[in-house]
Write a structure and sequence with these properties.
Elements lengths: L6 E2 L2 E2 L1 H18 L2 E3 L14 E3 L2 E2 L3 E4 H22 L2 H7 L1 H6 L1 H15 L6 E13 L4 E8 L6 H22 L11 H16 L5 E5 L7 H15 L3 E4 L1 H7 E3 L5 E3 L2 E8 L11 H12 L3 E3 L2 H6 L2 H7 L5 H4 L3 H9 L4 E3 L3 H9 L4 E5 L8 E2 L1 H13 L7 E5 L6 E7 L2 E20 L2 E16 L12 E4 L1 E4 L3
Parallel strand pairs: 6-23, 9-10, 9-13, 13-14
Antiparallel strand pairs: 1-2, 3-4, 5-19, 7-8, 7-20, 11-12, 12-13, 15-18, 16-17, 16-18, 19-20, 20-21, 21-22
Helix pairs in contact: 1-6, 6-7, 7-8, 9-10, 15-16
The structure holds adenosine-5'-diphosphate (ADP) and magnesium ion.
């Protein structure tokens, strides 16, 4: 029987919300929408221990359908762009040349990239599993790109289940909520990512080979990853092994013909779910593992070039006038890509630095880092810019400046650790994309489902794992 609840214009009362939240949390536990619980020290290393439901929004967040279509349409364009840019080694090296002077991590990546250029190493089979993230800017009512991720994009596994959860809740409580489950778009990200990995594996035609997932030694988001492992095995008959970078260093070697062998197993696809942050390289061992894999003939998802294309510096370079034109021919497609670019500037631009010091709230200052918690906002932008200017030299090159996007806030119920609370929130939409090609043949170039993340509007950062945001899904509306 339905719980006794009263509603005002589709808004259930507090008791009803509590009841729904309990049901939602139970549903998560029963459907694998779970993460490791910080409170349990073993939850990041021992599977099946210390689970908690993933932080979720109780109901999907609204987005006008036109923006959804726009974001979906952009996915294959960004996939193609990444591939084209990745082939221009000089562009990557030149664009990042100043960054490398001040950023050791970028510098190490560029060293590996340079080695591959010098050896004239060609990646014939190229696999990209990307996610392009957007926010709807309320000032301009336009969808603007936050960033394009080309390495270790998270939540392709869990996001598909959030969509199912929301459809289930709407089906159960729909007439009270005045919502229609059909307006929550389907989300097959996990199946599509698994399929792309399997297809890359297929290109090698080595039955005994495995997909190797590179993971962090401690990973509380492991169930997101295990969803892909499951589909790889069940839908494609492909085995996945999980290794840390230091395990690859200890157990890996490359045969004279280029074959990557780890612990006596042939690896034809390396899928990185680690390796995007300097923290993943505590010693030389991890760097030599990265180099070893890059030197092998295995498909790297991503290759060192694809990884570099996803840096914030390259995002900013691509936004300069006439740069997209170097890589793409189709004028309409170029215009579509450019339409979603926010203002992006290098700190060479003295005028922009000056105006950011004067109006710091209109900018975000970003270092060359991934994974959340690194950006600088508000008055800190002013302070940092003044300090960096004083330091002089190339200190400014470690950062880019970005136009601050102001999404409209709305009320949502967030459920975290079994506790539901209502807050003013903003959302970020990520569209997954898969790209696979073998020489001249494009085998896959698709959008692959979506990730909606919702966070309290007063929080600047957006990471779910970092504890800022919750997983969400989309509710498409007509109005623009
Ligand atoms: P990361 O690599 O850490 O994910 P992002 O560029 O995605 O770096 O920034 C992290 C978060 O900061 C985003 O998820 C978003 O919530 C917020 N953010 C980033 N850029 C902007 C911007 N230009 N305007 C407003 N918020 C932003
Ligand atoms: Mg991000």
């Amino acid at each position: 029987p339905l719980p006794a609840m009263s509603t005002t214009e589709g808004k259930p009362d507090a008791d009803a919300v509590e009841e729904m939240a309990r049901e939602a949390a139970a549903w998560c536990a029963m459907h694998g929408l779970v993460v490791g619980d910080r409170a349990d020290p073993r939850s990041g290393t021992v599977p099946g221990v210390g689970l908690v439901h993933a932080p979720i929004s109780l109901l999907p967040s609204r987005l006008p359908e036109s923006f959804w279509s726009q974001a979906c349409e952009l996915a294959p364009l960004f996939n193609e762009l990444v591939d084209r840019v990745s082939l221009d080694g000089d562009f990557l090296q030149d664009s990042l040349s100043k960054t490398r002077q001040v950023d050791d991590f970028t510098s190490r990546l560029l060293d590996i990239h340079r080695k591959m250029m010098d050896a004239n190493k060609k990646e014939n089979i190229r696999l990209g599993l990307h996610r392009s993230d957007y926010m709807l800017d309320s000032e301009t009512n336009s969808l603007l790109q936050i960033e394009l991720n080309t390495i270790s994009v998270s939540f392709p596994g869990l996001c598909s289940i959030v969509t199912e959860l929301h459809r289930t809740l709407i089906n159960q409580y729909g007439n009270l909520l005045c919502l229609d489950a059909k307006r929550v778009p389907g989300n097959e990200a996990s199946r599509q990512f698994a399929k792309a990995l399997a297809k890359a594996w297929d290109e090698f035609n080595v039955d005994s080979a495995v997909v190797m997932m590179i993971v962090q030694p401690e990973e509380r988001n492991m169930y997101d990853q295990y969803w892909l492992v499951k589909y790889l095995r069940e839908s494609h008959g492909v085995t996945t092994i999980r290794k840390t970078l230091s395990e690859v260093e200890a157990e890996g070697r490359v045969l004279p013909d280029g074959t990557l062998v780890v612990n006596d197993r042939k690896v034809t696809v390396v899928y990185f779910r680690a390796g995007y942050t300097p923290n993943d390289y505590p010693s030389e061992a991890e760097w030599s593992a990265r180099l070893l894999m890059e030197q092998s003939s295995a498909v790297k998802c991503p290759s060192i070039s694809y990884h570099l294309v996803g840096t914030k510096k390259i995002q900013q370079e691509l936004a300069k006038p006439n740069v997209l034109e170097r890589f793409l021919e189709n004028k309409e497609e170029i215009a579509k890509l450019r339409q979603c670019f926010a203002g992006l500037w290098s700190l060479d631009d003295e005028e922009v630095v000056k105006s950011a010091i004067e109006n710091p709230d209109l900018f975000v200052l970003k270092p060359q880092r991934e994974g959340g918690g690194n950006n600088i906002y508000g008055l800190d932008v002013r302070e940092a810019l003044i300090r960096l200017k004083k330091e002089g030299g190339d200190a400014l090159s470690a950062y880019i400046l970005m136009q601050r996007i102001f999404p409209k806030a709305s009320l949502a119920s967030l459920v975290r650790g079994g506790v539901c609370h209502e807050a003013l929130t903003v959302s970020e939409l990520g569209i997954y994309g898969a790209y696979l090609r073998n020489k001249d043949k494009v085998i896959i170039n698709d959008k692959c489902g979506y990730l909606m993340r919702t966070k309290v509007s007063s929080s600047d950062e957006g990471g779910v794992a970092a504890g800022f945001a919750v997983l969400d899904s989309l509710y498409l509306t007509d109005k623009v």
